[in-house]
Amino acid sequence: MIKSTLCALSFAAAAACAAPAGAAAYNFTFTTHYDFSAPGGTFLGGGGPSPDTGFVELTNNGGSALTGAFFTTAVSACCGDMSFNSGDISIASGQTVVIAIGTESSNVGGFGPGGVFMGFAGSGAYAGLNVGDFDANVHSGVFRTDPFTGLPIDSWVLEGSTSSGGDTGDAFETTAADGHLTFSSGGGVPEPATWALMLGGFGLAGLALRRRKGLGVTA
What we know:
single chain; mainly beta; six-stranded mixed β-sheet; 2 helices; about 10% helix; globular; disordered N terminus
């Protein structure tokens, strides 16, 4: 069954898990990162750190080029639309491409109930493949205390590691462990972040997400 490696196990399984049965085999990872400079990889656009901001990376783990559009939906509460769409591109095997979320994504009041949405829409051999998820659901497995809610958190990296939309400060934002989410046509073993949720933080992290209602998939 074609699915993301987290689709069947995530407590926020509203992530897009749809893919056509005839699509070519794929395996790629979204990584959420917050820093003073862009991570390694091919930078596509979306903004630049001033002084720091969130970045979404897509790494093609498969054996052949991945074709389609890598995009983010990031409409901020106070400072406009920071969404970005790469258009149709080819991502070589082993290649990482990077999108910035504006110039300081932790200082814009948040991006809605699930945070930034990151997605991939396939083309060519991957036509009809449409998968993605919200920052709220991209976990590192390394929990810290959200300074605004007082709850443990290992996601929301792109908003400064808080579900509140508040500014947690550069030192907190840039020391967050990266979040990872892998999508694969063959399924696979859940990543460490998933086991962390299942074995320890599931209930507490669920409380944090329930503070932000209406999680769902955007087309």
